[in-house]
Design goal:
The complex is a heterodimer of chains A (313) and B (115). Chain A has 313 residues and is α/β, with parallel strands linked by helices. Chain A is built from ten helices and 13 strands. In chain A, the strands form two sheets. Chain A has a seven-stranded mixed β-sheet with strand order 2-1-13-12-3-4-5. In chain A, strand 12 and strand 13 form a beta hairpin. Chain A is globular and about 50 Å long. In chain B, strands 2-1-4-6 form a four-stranded mixed β-sheet, with no helix packed on it. In chain B, strands 3-8-7-5 form a four-stranded mixed β-sheet, covered by helices on one side. In chain B, a hairpin with a 7-residue loop joins strand 7 and strand 8. Classes of the chains: A alpha/beta (313), B alpha/beta (115). Chains A and B meet through loops of A and strand 7 of B.
């Protein structure tokens, strides 16, 4: 992606860091990641045109209902995240929420989350549930509010701007001692959904728990994800987006970019540090730098995607 | 260290399960904890195995900053999400070995043995 990276001067990149201390943006072309800019879109609308069309923003792990020391006001940090998205000079049409909308699956938490998310200017909100959203035995609190897109199965697909989006659920087939599970029925549905699609179609897959094993002792992975990856292998551009671990972890394997997003609520420790994946308490002045959102832009004449992360700092 | 602590009670649990319903001389890992009380702390249930008499009520209490659930493998009992210091109770009337886990953190598992 040399044409994109060349438009960003070092001075411009430093200027962009002043906005939100935002993360690095990557352009993905042929499976190769190229660092491009830091929150370029928000800092310079004219220059941002060269970066492509804003496609969508990923929000994750809003945990509405959490009120402990690690962040006593998760509504406020979600509000700041929404402000960040709404301030983009070119609005993405879609927002994807990769789960753990609520902390305890309680009706009042879902109601508040819906109320806060309704302030997004983007016209479509697409969600998948996290394990915190599905602790009621019937999962009815989630499905009553967000089940329509999937006929209450949780998984569904749609197309936007030539990109095929696949929303998957890996938190419902709960197995004691195990990782997340997609299950045979959902994998068969994916095979059917992808059948006949051109290998040049950019694919975005999103689910709550990571679709590759990041740290098995904490359940940071999905046991049957390799069967999904087998189905995605023939596509030239695949972006796999997850939440769950409240921090950015990224890898590229062939034409597949794997990326986990920050939470808007509270950070979690790095894999294996401490007793388990609970809320990480950090000094208040550090919190904003550990929360944030991810953005994805269409580049290279719509054939590939670029990814950026912004914090609330 | 954590692995060593966890392994002991797990082996005992397996022994009990394999001998059930025969009476064994192993008085289980309930240890010094009050019968019928399980604490979820540091992403572990403690004690890992609790042995009780039929008719006893077991109460689980979450002492983590992170919510946990108590979900039976067979669907016999299921709590909602337990926030910090919240509890869930279930009375076990029939003898047997009951396995459960936290559905939010499925690696958190425990066993109730009812005599």
């Amino acid at each position: 992606m040399p044409e994109e990276s060349s438009v960003i001067s070092r001075r411009r990149a430093l200027a962009c860091m002043a906005f939100g201390g935002a993360g690095t943006m990557f352009a993905l072309a042929g499976g190769v990641l190229t660092p491009v800019a830091l929150a370029e879109a928000a800092a310079d609308p004219k220059g941002a045109g060269a970066l492509g069309k804003p496609l969508f923003v990923q929000l994750s792990d809003t945990h509405i209902g959490f009120n402990k020391e690690a962040n006593p006001d998760v509504g406020a940090t979600l509000g700041r995240s929404i402000d960040l998205v709404n301030a983009l000079p070119r609005q993405p049409a879609l927002v994807l929420h990769t789960g753990d909308i609520t902390h305890l699956s309680r009706p009042a938490e879902f109601d508040l989350a819906q109320q806060l998310l309704s302030r997004l200017r983007a016209s479509e909100l697409h969600t998948v549930p996290g394990e915190h959203d599905t602790t009621d035995s019937t999962v009815s609190e989630y499905f009553n509010r967000f089940g329509k897109a999937s006929a209450n199965r949780g998984y569904y697909s749609f197309d936007h701007a030539g990109v095929h989006f696949v929303a998957l659920v890996n938190v419902l087939e709960f197995k004691p001692g195990g990782l997340g599970t997609l299950g045979a029925e959902q994998l068969a549905w994916v095979a059917d959904d992808l059948r006949g699609r051109s290998a040049s179609t950019p694919i975005v897959v999103f689910a709550h728990m990571p679709l590759w094993t990041i740290y098995e002792p904490w359940g940071w992975g999905t046991g049957d994800a390799p069967q999904l990856m087998e189905q995605l292998r023939r596509f030239g551009s695949v972006t796999v987006l997850n939440g769950h671990i409240h921090q950015i972890v990224q890898k590229v394997e062939g034409n597949v970019l794997f990326h986990t997003a920050r939470s808007t609520a509270y950070p979690q420790p790095q894999a294996g540090v401490g007793a388990g994946p609970g809320p990480l308490k950090v000094p208040p002045e550090q919190l904003a730098s550990m929360l944030g959102v991810s953005g994805v832009t269409l580049v290279n004449r719509g054939r590939s995607l670029a990814l950026s992360d912004a914090t609330l700092a | 260290m954590r692995h060593i602590i966890r392994l002991g009670p797990l082996l005992i649990a397996l022994t009990l399960a394999s001998h059930a319903p025969a009476q064994t001389a192993t008085p289980a890992a309930a240890g010094a904890a009050a019968p019928g009380v399980v604490i979820a702390r540091d992403f572990m249930f403690a004690p890992l195995t609790v042995t009780i008499a039929a008719g006893t009520t077991v109460t689980w209490t979450n002492r983590d900053d992170e919510p946990h659930t108590v979900v039976s493998d067979t669907g016999l009992f299921r709590s909602g999400a337990l926030d910090t210091n919240e509890s869930f109770s279930f009375r076990f009337d029939a003898p047997g070995t009951y396995h459960y886990a936290c559905s939010i953190h499925p690696r958190m598992v425990g066993t109730i043995v009812v005599r």
